[in-house]
Amino acid sequence: MKMRFIALFFLLISFFIYEELFASALSRDDAIKLFTDANENYQQAAKLIAAKNNQEADKKLHDAALQYEKILTNGFEHGQIYYNLGNTYYRQGALGKAIVNYRRAQRLLPRHADPDANLKLVKSAIEDKELVHETPVAIQRIFFWLFLLNQNELILTAVSLYAVLIVLILSFIILKYPWFKRIIISVTFGLCIVVVSLGIKIYREQGIHRGVIVVKKCQILYGPGKEYEPKFEIHDGAECVVEDEKDGWYRVYMYVGVKQDMESKAVMEEKASKELRRGWLQKGDVDII
């Protein structure tokens, strides 16, 4: 009897906890309204900036950023929200946070050109001209589906092909048409390609932890702690790859473009050479994409 009472007590406690959690969660209608309000704040801020009223514009941008963040923290993830949030942070001058959200928008909206264009614009304004590895165009064209479909779309394609394959196998067993074998082999081959592509996509997006510096500047140290000497300095918007984590510190590396001035009588050209730099920085200085 005592055990039943204890079990009932914990069941009631759990019920009230879950009820409180779900009560505080944002409904779909509330998220849509919040998204609309955030868009309105952003548009008003753009008008205020054009009218040179920067103080009011900053307030509107701040409100818009909070509204977009609230939608995302409540589980409503969409590429357009990340893109709009990136635009908002760019207007605020937070280049690192803008790059983080443009990168997230790229993952969810791989066929949209706007995040790519705005990302290039922001990257041209940051202080550290790091050289980010880009996939060759030839590879992008050969394996076009890997770059045109996001992770969820690849999962949906794989599930659809698997369902078609099951139907085909059952149909072959029942009807015994010999030409079904060719179709089954073709669908199986396509399913294998999609599954492998999905694995590559998951590894690229989740297996490799990429981050962006979101503070004005920070010191990269020789070790995980303030007692270590600084190695070099990086600035807001620089991208890096996180290799390890220890006691509130990240070990990161990045490819930094070292500018070399070449003077001539007519023009002065700039050439960037690739330099790999590695070190430790505090977790609060970087936001993981």
TrEMBL record:
<keyword id="KW-0472">Membrane</keyword>
<keyword id="KW-0802">TPR repeat</keyword>
<keyword id="KW-0812">Transmembrane</keyword>
<dbReference type="Pfam" id="PF00515">
    <property type="entry name" value="TPR_1"/>
</dbReference>
<feature type="transmembrane region" description="Helical">
    <location>
        <begin position="154"/>
        <end position="175"/>
    </location>
</feature>
<protein>
    <submittedName>
        <fullName>Uncharacterized protein</fullName>
    </submittedName>
</protein>
<dbReference type="InterPro" id="IPR011990">
    <property type="entry name" value="TPR-like_helical_dom_sf"/>
</dbReference>
<feature type="transmembrane region" description="Helical">
    <location>
        <begin position="182"/>
        <end position="203"/>
    </location>
</feature>
<feature type="repeat" description="TPR">
    <location>
        <begin position="79"/>
        <end position="112"/>
    </location>
</feature>
<keyword id="KW-1133">Transmembrane helix</keyword>
<dbReference type="InterPro" id="IPR019734">
    <property type="entry name" value="TPR_rpt"/>
</dbReference>
